[in-house]
Structure formats: structure tokens, C-alpha cells
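Hi team,

Below is the intake form for Ubiquitin-like protease family profile domain-containing protein from Ficus carica. Please confirm the fields before the structure is written into the shared record.

FORM ID: S-0412
PROTEIN: Ubiquitin-like protease family profile domain-containing protein
ORGANISM: Ficus carica
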Amino acid sequence: MPYNSGQHWILAVTDPWDDSVMYFNPLGNEPGDDFKDLITTALNDWKVLVGSGMRQRRNWQTLIDTVRCPIHEGYVECGYFVLAYMREITFTVDGLAVLMTKDFYTDADMSLVRHKWATFVILFIQY
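The structure came back. Fields below:
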């Protein structure tokens, strides 16, 4: 799930069945308290919805693993990086492993993400 804390985009990949949350941050920072609170609330609510037969965790915050991923130095393109992470995970065989071994995205990688996003938005606006 992409998440914006107000001025910065990150990506969280959650697997509530496996009690895991992977945190991808284009700036490389650790998750903030607002994100931890959101994940804790969401996953605890999910446990209630699926039933009491699930293992209960007292503190989901300890399950959030910050994952190595391509980072950027600026503050402008974090949204595009999150889109690139989602694209990598979704359309690449073993996308998580590939994403976690990349040090950076090339200009061509980011241009492709921008082009795909712009094409989607244009098609969405037209219909």
C-alpha cells in the first residue's frame, strides 16, 4: 500500500497471514510513529475481521522491516520511486528480491515510470 505522511511517499507491503510488513522508503529513513500507528491499527482491525482464530500480536510495530531499496537524494520524486517499486514487485519475476538488490534507478527507468503514469492518467481523464 502506498502511503503519504503529508509530504513524503513510502510503500508498505503487508502480509497479515505471515505477520510481516516490509517498509520501502525512497529516502532510506526508518518508519515514523504515524506510519507505525496506522499499520498497528489496520492489522489489529484485520485480525478482528477475520476472526479470533488468528494468532494475536501485541505490537505490530516490531514486525515492520525496513527493506533495502533504491533511494534518491531529492524530495521531489518519492512518488515516482514508490510507483517504480510497485511496478518492479508486480511485473518482475521475483520482484521483491530484484528490488532489494538494486542500488539506484537509471534516468531511463524513471522516464518509463513517468510515461506509464502519464498514459494512465490521460486515459482515465478521457473516460
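SUMMARY LINE: The domain at 2-126 is CATH 3.40.395.10 (Adenoviral Proteinase; Chain).

Thanks, M.
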